[in-house]
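Handout, tutorial session.
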Amino acid sequence: MLRFLFSGVCLVSLAVAGCGGRTMPETTPVEGVVRVNGRPQHGLLVRFLPDPEQGNNTSFYASGTTDQQGKYVLEYDYQGVHGQGAALGWHRVLVLDTTVALPAPGKAQAPPSVSFAYASPATTPLRIEVKAGEPTIDLDVKR
């Protein structure tokens, strides 16, 4: 009986710790305004991906969508834990235009409001360090 109880406690401990023994990284609130060529832009998906070249946890990311004033607030979902903010450390930041829809047949697609360079971790020029106590990170991107 004691052996089964001990096994159960070990399994619960592993489940709480997460798969592979990963622990929840330290986070901090992050919000800001995205400006495209100097003007706030709505409908942009902003995603902070930890930068593996800087030793940051590669399985934790946070994202948010800009409102009418260009403001975003980052949120995360890490192994079932939901919250606001991003992991501390260096990130590659992606910015994607969610307002561009597929064109009607025979019509040309409208260009996105941001360059495609911001859509990939390999090409984004945005490398940002998230620091505790610095919750505002404004982003300036090009069309």
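The second record follows below. Compare its token runs with those of the first.
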Amino acid sequence: MAGRATVLIVVFDASTLISAALKANSIPEQAFLRAVTEPDRLILSQDVETEYREVMFRPKFDRYVAVERRRLILDIVIVAAARVEPAEIVRECRDPKDDKYLSLAAAGRADVIVSSDVRHLLAMHPWRGISILSPAGYLALS
């Protein structure tokens, strides 16, 4: 992506973030690394951070990936992401737990939500002019 100067404001859902943590060198990890590297800009709200923390440290993932790697991924998010606290609470997703990503995307004027949730978030693409893409779809953007 050398020479790419288009800035994309990005929201990551928790399922995609945990996929990035679980699978080194995977498409989700590549998408995550792009989102936290300029010119792209990952955005984060307190609600989304809370969900990341809850999902990232679920005991069921202990046998797949070390807690240290999950902590590192979360630390990268905390340092790299721009903070945005939504004023509007969106209630438009069939899964109400995913509304926090829509609220963040609207408040932060995101260009893309990166999700692995085919049934809920990806099914809403596009939403209010915001692309909702799989990690591979996000990586395909130039």
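Points raised in discussion: The helical segments are 14-22, 27-35, 46-56, 67-80, 99-107, 135-140.
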